Amino acid sequence: MNVRLFKPSLGEEELNNIKDSFDKAWIGLGPKVARFEKEWCGYIGCKSSIGLNSATAALHLALTSFGFREGQKVLVPAITFASTAFAPVYNRLEPVFVDVDEDTVSISMEDLERKFSKDCVAVMPVHFGGHPANMDMIIDFAKSKKLKVVEDCAHTAGSSYKGKKLGTWGDIGCFSFEEKKAMTTGDGGMMCSDDEELIAPMKACRWVGIDKDTWKRVEGYTDTKALDAMHWYYEIASLGFKYNMNDLSASIGLAQLKKLDRMNADRSRHIERYMEGIRDLKNIKPLLPFSPDKNSYWLFGVRCEKRDELIIHLKSKGIATGVHYVPLMLFPFFKRWDNGCSISKRIWKEFITLPLFADLKNEEIDYVLESLKEFDRKY
Ligand SMILES: *Cc1c(COP(=O)(O)O)cnc(C)c1O
After folding, report:
1. Section 207-231 average pLDDT
2. Atom of ligand 1 nearest to the CA of 57
3. Model pTM greater than 0.85?
4. Which one of 23, 177, 285, 350 has the minimum C-beta count within 10 Å?
5. Where in the sequence is the domain holding 183, given as residue range(s)?
6. Residue-level pLDDT at 235
7. Is the dihedral of CA 23, 28, 31, 34 positive or negative?
8. Could you tell me if 338 and 363 are in contact, meaning their C-beta atoms sit under 8 angstroms apart?
């Protein structure tokens, strides 16, 4: 048996939406993106959303929207995907690595207080694996220090913390619809906020600086009621990027959004089965304090001292695994910002990510569990 690590759950609904965009012959930035943004606002419960081609772009523009001065500092967890820490660098800001909490692998409050300095202007918590960061404490801290909060929600979509949707706690929430994530548009991302004015200028930034969407302008090209010659005109007032979502991606996203709660529930069910199965193992422990009844997880993993041997054992059984993540300062590019973070540097060595996706079958989970048990018995 071969078991994949991640797999998107795709079907007729996505295809039908794509076909509709084909029939209209509009597959770039267009009305589907606008509809997806509107439905996303409704789903998450926020005032404004901007569809982008990735969460990497969302994190970049989220920091851009505050207009921070060059050289100011942004607090990011040491264990996360590179994009979280690239975002300040894109904006000529400095990332400051904050150690993670040993259990939840989200930003450590203790180290956050320690690493804060007067040059810090923002903090970017990551809900690692889908486990919510301590948003109430982070928000309190941020308020007391006048820090902006950008939530990196790339590991979660639709989950709540203390009754409030993740992505709506901070000033801006950033989501990923990359193929492997909680829901997908192939590649894609969304930035959302309750502060419409704050993120509105990012609509131009995502579309090469142009302040009007082409698809709205073209309607004016043939408008017989407005016989002016200026329908082609647009303004460029800011540095632009080509970061827009397109209607093909939005077609997939609109269908995925309808399935998101179901996919989250499926993943929760799988995690319950995994947790039950590993309960009595001696050398293999859950990666996170999983509570699938409360939270929606994107990732399931375990901790094992003999991590690399376990990876090889599972590989020999046809089971795909991963490691999320190497602490960023261990990479050459981020080494210059190495500032300690001893917990991160120790605990990641035991991390293994196991197969988890909505359509994962019970037989596949049981096969993974059997293989884990076999390994556990050997030690
Ligand atoms: C995947 C991921 C991103 C980047 O998402 P893309 O949509 O691929 O750009 C950012 N942050 C975290 C924590 C991620 O896991």
Report:
1. 82
2. 9
3. yes
4. 23
5. 12-258
6. 86
7. positive
8. no
Provide the pLDDT for residue 80: 98
User: Is residue 337 assigned to a domain?
Assistant: yes
Q: How many domains does the chain have?
A: 2
Q: Is 55 in the pocket of ligand 1 (CB under 6 A)?
A: yes
Q: Flag whether 225 is in a domain.
A: yes
pLDDT greater than 80 at residue 187: yes
Other Cβ atoms less than 10 A from the Cβ of 263: the count is 22
CA of 151 to the centre of ligand 1 (A): 12
Tell me, yes or no, whether 276 and 227 share the same domain.
no
Kindly state if the Cβ of 155 falls inside 6 Å of ligand 1: yes
Domain-terminating residue out of 191, 225, 258: 258
The alpha carbon of 91 and the centre of ligand 1 are apart by a number of angstroms equal to 17
Q: What is the reported pLDDT for 228?
A: 82
pLDDT of 65-105, one tens digit each?
A: 999 999 999 999 999 999 999 999 999 999 999 999 999 99
Which CATH number goes with the domain that contains 31? Answer: 3.40.640.10
Pick the atom of ligand 1 nearest to 56's CA: 9
Is 90 exceeded by the pLDDT of residue 234?
no
64 and 183 part of one domain: yes
Q: Is the CB of 54 under 6 A from ligand 1?
A: yes
pLDDT value, residue 36: 98
43 within a domain of the structure (yes/no): yes
Question: Does 76 sit in the ligand 1 pocket, CB within 6 Å?
Answer: no
Q: Which residue, judged by its Cα, is nearest atom 2 of ligand 1? A: 154
Q: Is the CB of 249 under 6 A from ligand 1?
A: no
Confidence grade of residue 15 (pLDDT, cut at 50, 70, 90) = very high
What strands lie across the sheet with 285-286, from one edge to the other?
A: 285-286, 300-303, 351-354
Q: Ligand 1 atom closest to Cα of 188?
A: 7
Residue 253 shares a structural domain with residue 137: yes
> Chain-wide mean pLDDT for the chain?
96
Q: Give pLDDT, residue 193.
A: 98
Cα of 219 to ligand 1 centre, how many Å? Answer: 35
Clarify whether residues 145 and 211 are in a common domain. yes
Instruction: Determine, yes or no, domain membership for 2.
Output: no
325: preceding bond cis by omega (within 30 degrees)? yes
Residue type, 286: P
- Using DSSP's 3-state secondary structure scheme, residue 239 falls into coil
Same-domain check for residues 215 and 354: no
Query: Which of 203, 230, 258 is a domain's end point?
Result: 258
Q: Which residues neighbour 312 within 8 Å (Cβ) at sequence distance 6 or greater?
A: none
Same domain, 239 and 264: no
Question: Which ligand 1 atom minimizes the distance to the CA of 84?
Answer: 11
Residue nearest to atom 8 of ligand 1 (CA): 178
Distance CA 59, CA 39 (A): 21
